[in-house]
Write a structure and sequence with these properties.
This protein is 59% helix and 2% strand. The protein is mainly alpha-helical. It has one domain: Four Helix Bundle (Hemerythrin (Met), subunit A). Strands 1-2 form a two-stranded antiparallel ribbon. The longest helix has 25 residues. It is globular, with a radius of gyration of 16 Å.
Length: 162
Amino acid sequence: MSIKNTFAKGLLRQYQSSWKMLRNAIENVPDEKWHDGSEDWYFSLSAYHIVETMEFYMNDDPDVMNWGSRAGFDWDNVKDKQKDVLPKISKKLVMTYLDEMEKRFTQTINSMTTEKIESKDGFHWFDSIFEKLLYLLRHNMHHNGELSRTLRDWGCKRSKWV
């Protein structure tokens, strides 16, 4: 049996809102500020991180992820974020990656059964796939908030609440 229609629709709507807010933040940041930040936090890297973490949690096993591979780097070999990572993260890359993860997530939710979403997978620290997906939504919104606050601090147009 597939997930009840209202359940799947509600979950998808909330994710779609978070994706719209991320797109809005990316569109609103001026190109010259895209890579701004500090050694611990960069606007571009945070936007990329939101999408990359979506890919991570859509897997059934936490050990299959190759962090950084979508942008062409390997976190295990990064010595300098500014030289090894930031130049590889363009707005276009993040937007394309987001489009792909949104499509994948939507297909996954629409095909998921009640039994599947209530089950556990290789992410042993969650009691169910449903809990993992709620965690991911909270994660996305935490970082969306950081991006919006940064836009405000920089005097840019903030992300629109959707």
